[in-house]
Amino acid sequence: MARMNLLQAVNNALTIAMEQDERVMVFGEDVGHFGGVFRATSHLQEKFGKPRCFNTPLTEQGIIGFANGLAAQGAVPVAEIQFGDYIFPAFDQIVNETAKFRYRSGGQFSCGTLTIRTPYGGGIAGGHYHSQSPEAFFAHCPGLKIVIPRDPYQAKGLLLASIRDDNPVLFMEPKRLYRASVADVPEDDFELPLGKADLVQEGRDITLVGWGAQVEILQKAAQMSLQDGISCEVIDLRSILPWDRLMVAESVMKTGRLLINHEAPLTGGFASEIAAAIQEQCFLYLEAPIARVCGLDTPYPLAHEKEYMPDEYKTYEAIKRTMTY
Amino acid sequence: MARMNLLQAVNNALTIAMEQDERVMVFGEDVGHFGGVFRATSHLQEKFGKPRCFNTPLTEQGIIGFANGLAAQGAVPVAEIQFGDYIFPAFDQIVNETAKFRYRSGGQFSCGTLTIRTPYGGGIAGGHYHSQSPEAFFAHCPGLKIVIPRDPYQAKGLLLASIRDDNPVLFMEPKRLYRASVADVPEDDFELPLGKADLVQEGRDITLVGWGAQVEILQKAAQMSLQDGISCEVIDLRSILPWDRLMVAESVMKTGRLLINHEAPLTGGFASEIAAAIQEQCFLYLEAPIARVCGLDTPYPLAHEKEYMPDEYKTYEAIKRTMTY
Amino acid sequence: MQDRNHLARVKATHQVEVIENGLIDIPMLQILQSDGTLHPGASAPPLSQDVAVKILHTMQYIRILDERMIAAQRQGRISFYLACTGEEAAAVGSVAALSDQDMIMSQYREQGALAYRGYSTAQFMNQMFSNQLDPNKGRQMPIHYGDKALNFMTISSPLATQIPQAAGYAYGQKMAGNDAITICYFGEGAASEGDFHAGLNMAAVLNCPVVFFCRNNGYAISTPAEEQFAGDGIASRGIGYGIKTIRVDGNDVLAVYAATQEARRIAVEQRCPVLIEAMSYRLAAHSTSDDPSGYRSRDEEDKWRAKDPVARMIHWLDSQGWFDESQNSKWLEQSRQEVLAALKEAEKVPVNPIEDIVEDVYDSVPWHLSAQLEQLKSHIKKYPEVYPKTSGRVK
Amino acid sequence: MQDRNHLARVKATHQVEVIENGLIDIPMLQILQSDGTLHPGASAPPLSQDVAVKILHTMQYIRILDERMIAAQRQGRISFYLACTGEEAAAVGSVAALSDQDMIMSQYREQGALAYRGYSTAQFMNQMFSNQLDPNKGRQMPIHYGDKALNFMTISSPLATQIPQAAGYAYGQKMAGNDAITICYFGEGAASEGDFHAGLNMAAVLNCPVVFFCRNNGYAISTPAEEQFAGDGIASRGIGYGIKTIRVDGNDVLAVYAATQEARRIAVEQRCPVLIEAMSYRLAAHSTSDDPSGYRSRDEEDKWRAKDPVARMIHWLDSQGWFDESQNSKWLEQSRQEVLAALKEAEKVPVNPIEDIVEDVYDSVPWHLSAQLEQLKSHIKKYPEVYPKTSGRVK
Ligand SMILES: Cc1ncc(C[n+]2csc(CCOP(=O)(O)OP(=O)(O)O)c2C)c(N)n1
Ligand SMILES: Cc1ncc(C[n+]2csc(CCOP(=O)(O)OP(=O)(O)O)c2C)c(N)n1
Ligand SMILES: [Mg+2]
Ligand SMILES: [Mg+2]
């Protein structure tokens, strides 16, 4: 065990992946000598050489296009997009290419070895081009996996699993936790399962579902609710695609209530999919409408960031509303 | 009144818009002399000159980038993306630029005059690159309007309203109806409202919601259900963003049941938003889970297109399941 | 850290110099004249009789296939087709200069390259009929071929996406330490996409052994080259990226062969990209969905018909004593029969069973897709007449 | 229909010619020497004393602003800043050669252009403190200025998006029939984006009166130019697009002025784009979030510090008899005071009231956003201490 922050955990996972499989290559804007603007790829070029860890020109569509070809060739690319907000120039390469490569070729070729890492989310005074949470844009795209860790331990285990999984994975890192979240992480190689949610806290009265940095918000809200005698079950979804409907449904059948929280705008966010699926599966168990506590349907604002965020207070209020419906 | 198919209705709307406002300009791949691969822009170059109706180089990101600048300057661009499947290279320009232009500048600059036209949808043996229904990818993006007509009359009225609306509009045309759907359309200038759904058929037992070419499917399924004594209310959403929650909610409060149908894959499709919002608003009125009849969570297949589509039979079966829940 | 100086190679001037035409001429390599003789001063690349005849046969075969499939589309037997008539020399001449280990990433009008590699008529047909014998499992429209065994990447409709992918693929080949390269075909229209820029620039900076092969055939559907770009074709861009560049007459198969051979040599030896621009003309309609009479003249087409690459090659083979008119006629007739027979055969083969609809989305079928499949199967069983392609085989 | 011939201008060759270096040299315009004298053979552009002094003052002002705001960021008073130290001549010299009607679409390191247009210190501060006096309503990070009255488009973080937009904007200006043009600034890093390719090609084909102004400052954050492209800078690409191109010493404000003046003249008269590549060096850190000591040497920086554009301009003004040392010192001190005072002032101004959060998403606030706002307001009322910036003013 070692104390690591989330960045160190990512760096550690990348180091292990590169040590164990020489086909693993790490690249993106500024990831080489400099080690990335957040330093997630620090020392990788030094350790593994420039051919395996390198800067690319400044073109996200090129980075993912290049990565798709590299993956199809049989290498194991781990491509970095410097901010989640800048992943959209690569949208076509991801949605029309990465995700459909295997299907369209009848399984002859695939981008299964590709992992795309990108920091996402708000809370860092970044305004609308350094704060977005774009997971829902990709969640509508069959063929991709989407994985989001909530802490350093999860980050290491999930990233190693993502790199080794034979499907393309979009690995989104909650950047406001990069240095803020510190935990004990095993120094050895280990993996955590993709597609499986994690039961963070058991409870009886209401199920709270979130991912990434918002899991902490759910835990705080659960704590606040305790004082009102409300017992919350907290689930970290971890994988957005495919997602663990079974665990959420089982929990809701027990608690009878569900709240989902995400930073992205409400409309068309991934909470809508969870709500739609669970109201179908748990219809007779639900004692109140499924609540969504999300960002507003606006671009991510700067001056009003605090007001915009689906924080623990909003979550707590929604829990109470749901309990007293 | 004149008999027009959907393409002619689009062409007629463009002609009127260009006649009435010389700031209107129409451009995209092959839209000039040739009149577009579907011929939606036929004769516009002839009538209004090359500077106002022209071919662009083959670059969707460029077309929308150019259109954004043109709109910000004060012109009224109507940009065509040849197929909805090829809109993704422009995703960044649409989601990060078009949609946020006004907000980020505090209302000093905007792309409000922009309309993006694109054909979408399956049923034409087009496989996964000529059949996609990408509306949900854009529905998660505040700042955009999304409009989809179901027939020639709606196409003309909604397109004229979209061009004149002071917000950027993504106008998606159901291409399998281009020549198949023929109707009486007023020859004069007229507009239909954005953001308002259309009650296609009144009913008592269940509300069916869809848009574009799927409205016809809903009507067929409603017809089949009649034989079982089931009375369906059919709503054409018309605007996906912002959507007419009020009309859907009122209908569901009356019928107690809701089914949503779209061609795009189930997970993260726009049906999930409707289901999530309506289960919240109409919780105590719902007598059965909200049903979604959608495409499978796969890329759009070719050989199995018929099996993939959320057709009237699947819809009818889902209606019966919902009625007997 | 070593000091860098990004101005090291820049010279000074003291008057405002507007560079209007900053290129040295990029000439077009021509070896064969229309009558099959060589241009004065030109020499033919080293070609054995076998290879030369294989090149001719492949070009002729593709022309037969194109004719036959356009007819099949008109008869409603297939939904779509896309011919390369007039451009056969570009794909065939280039692929003939490569090794079989080299990866081919094509746009869609390069069926000649695939045929040269050995794709059989039956394979072409299985793809076009989307039947269960197609290794791509009938998932894409006709002409979106792909065959891993022949190192031919499955074609993707979105234009230019294969260009940065080719850079990445070639980088992977270099890292794997083998001498194989990647050839990446695309049209002058596709070269307007952002992916073109990204792909060429990355290949140049990251030293990827890839031959970018642009077919400049004057049109992108209805859009003429002059509405596509204002510079000196696509070749001039290569210079801007610091990529070695060759322009070639795309209707001259010997020139295409020679250019590609040299490009491959450079790519392998110097581990770097090379750009080839092949000048040709799309004599065919863009596809069976298109009618070019709406945007160009017969006259213009006729001028190009006179530059037929197949006839030119026949003249040359003849001058080498490698061409036998009657044998060739026999071969043509055989090929026509073969195409016809294979077409009839493939037409009868069913599409894949319905289980296939959820395969290959992921490496294995996840639970939610299994559930969707089960629901679909019971639905098909209820309405077998609505889904005739698959209902007979649903268990 | 007229016949087209896309090969009309192509010459033939009969040997495989690999064009390795197909460019004529693109030289760099230099007028001023470091000591303020002109290069032999160079002549200064026609500049009045007023304009020349305004140029100097703007460059000096920006340096003061940059210094002060970096300090403010270190003190935690603003969250972010981005300096243009060493590159002042590029933005200021170019904008001075334009008309006030010309639209400026910038990347982010061109605060000099904005200041030259008349943006006040108070306005700079209001933007950087995201307060309610900012016309952009505090919606973006510091340095994302925008001012419609000054024809300065609000800056957007995603790189290169403004490039095709500038082509479109300029097309609109041309259609509106006025003589205004658009200038579009970007870095050599941003020029790797697909949007660069799309924008330049479209501007060339559609004859848009736009001046593309590339600041090649050697770095994109930590990435040196040699890992960004392999060709002869960005200028060489202009040739490939058929765009008239000028390369200029970006640290020589007279040269930048002369080049831009000529570029503007061509754009207006010939209704076409012009590309300028200004060679300079980013002496500053990329931004306050960056530390360049991790990727380049002090030594390298020092070499460039010696080429300071401000000092060079002072020498020249001095040689014209237009520079008064003590007056200038006074002016510098005044400017420092002004910046300091404005900073303190802006710091005190509150952010916009909460109602603003749903404004400008659409032309008017739609019902669903009104509903979200109402819910938010009642929440803020319940927890006023959690939202101190807005709770005091919630009604
Ligand atoms: C991204 C994208 N945009 C548009 C299309 C539609 N489309 C198919 S082929 C074509 C023209 C391509 O022209 P070119 O690259 O010159 O190739 P050619 O057909 O001449 O061989 C277009 C616009 C597409 N397939 N992909
Ligand atoms: C699309 C996009 N990708 C990445 C970034 C992050 N980023 C901000 S500035 C920068 C470097 C830009 O370099 P250059 O264009 O040379 O301009 P300079 O900073 O040198 O003035 C990067 C990578 C961004 N803002 N937008
Ligand atoms: Mg072409
Ligand atoms: Mg730079």
From TrEMBL, chains A, B:
InterPro entries xref list: THDP-binding, Transketo_C/PFOR_II, Transketolase-like_Pyr-bd, Transketolase_C
Domain Transketolase-like pyrimidine-binding: 4-180
Cofactor: thiamine diphosphate
EC code(s) of this entry: 1.2.4.4
Principal EC category: oxidoreductase
Keywords: Oxidoreductase, Thiamine pyrophosphate
One GO process term, biological-process aspect: response to nutrient
Annotated function: The branched-chain alpha-keto dehydrogenase complex catalyzes the overall conversion of alpha-keto acids to acyl-CoA and CO(2). It contains multiple copies of three enzymatic components: branched-chain alpha-keto acid decarboxylase (E1), lipoamide acyltransferase (E2) and lipoamide dehydrogenase (E3).
Protein name: 2-oxoisovalerate dehydrogenase subunit beta
Organism (species): Alteromonas aestuariivivens
TrEMBL record, chains C, D:
Alphabetic keyword roster: Oxidoreductase, Thiamine pyrophosphate
Key word Manganese present: no
GO molecular function: branched-chain 2-oxo acid dehydrogenase activity
Enzyme type, top EC level: oxidoreductase
Reported cofactor(s): thiamine diphosphate
Keyword Oxidoreductase: yes
GO terms of biological process kind: branched-chain amino acid catabolic process
InterPro entries recorded: Alpha-ketoacid_DH_E1_comp, DH_E1, THDP-binding
Catalysed reactions, as listed in the record: N(6)-[(R)-lipoyl]-L-lysyl-[protein] + 3-methyl-2-oxobutanoate + H(+) = N(6)-[(R)-S(8)-2-methylpropanoyldihydrolipoyl]-L-lysyl-[protein] + CO2
Dehydrogenase E1 component domain span: 58-353
TM annotation in the entry: none
EC identifiers of the protein: 1.2.4.4
Entry's family note: Belongs to the BCKDHA family.
Described purpose of this protein according to its UniProt entry: The branched-chain alpha-keto dehydrogenase complex catalyzes the overall conversion of alpha-keto acids to acyl-CoA and CO(2). It contains multiple copies of three enzymatic components: branched-chain alpha-keto acid decarboxylase (E1), lipoamide acyltransferase (E2) and lipoamide dehydrogenase (E3).
PANTHER family membership: 2-OXOISOVALERATE DEHYDROGENASE SUBUNIT ALPHA, MITOCHONDRIAL
Record-given protein name: 2-oxoisovalerate dehydrogenase subunit alpha
Source species taxonomy: Bacteria, Pseudomonadati, Pseudomonadota, Gammaproteobacteria, Alteromonadales
